[in-house]
Design goal:
By secondary structure, this protein is of the alpha+beta class. The chain has 4 helices and 7 strands. A hairpin with a 6-residue loop joins strand 2 and strand 3. It is globular and about 45 Å long.
């Protein structure tokens, strides 16, 4: 399945792929390199600083990140060390109009394969560490709303219901799994 010139589409909150754990890439292929490049292009076009494959409907473990200090295209990223803590107000391309203050590690070290399929170790601090953690969360089926305080969940309930409908879910009351996850 070549992504080549295929137009990617962002999956909005309520899309099932966003809640599934992404599969590890067992044998990296040229299509993974192409998809990473398409994801990076898409991320830049939508003024994002990170994007995970599930956000464009792909259930594989791929992320792209660029906070303005250089582009990372990573396959099977996993955090091997966390240090300190920070809380940053985060947004998400899959949750337009929603932001949540999320507490994460201030410094992380991760291992992955780069877009040339070479093993890499990356240490990141501050915003870069936050973005890596955010995108790796997507690979685990987690979203920023999962970190929301009870007050934020109440504040966001109407907006999340609207996004859920936009994702093609007709009846928000039928979204029991999402509601249980958010405890709405």
């Amino acid at each position: 399945m070549s992504m080549g010139k295929t137009e990617l589409e962002i999956k909005i909150y309520g899309s099932a792929v966003l809640r599934r754990k992404a599969a590890a890439v067992k044998t990296p292929e040229a299509r993974h390199r192409e998809l990473l490049s398409e994801m990076a292009r898409f991320m830049y076009e939508h003024s994002g600083i990170g994007l995970a494959a599930p956000q464009v409907g792909c259930g594989e473990s791929l992320i792209v990140v660029d906070i303005g200090t250089g582009l990372y295209k990573l396959i099977n990223p996993r955090i091997i060390r966390r240090e300190g803590s920070q809380a940053i107000e985060e947004g998400c391309l899959s949750l337009p109009g929603v932001s949540v203050k999320v507490k994460r590690a201030k410094k992380i070290t991760l291992k992955a394969l780069d877009h040339e399929f070479n093993p890499v170790t990356v240490t990141a601090e501050g915003l870069l560490a936050c973005v890596f953690q955010h995108e790796i969360d997507h690979l685990k089926g987690r979203m920023i709303v999962d970190y929301a305080s009870l007050l934020d969940k109440v504040r966001l309930k109407k907006k999340l219901a609207e996004l859920y409908r936009r994702a093609g879910n007709e009846d928000v009351r039928e979204s029991g799994a999402e509601q249980r996850k958010l405890r709405l």
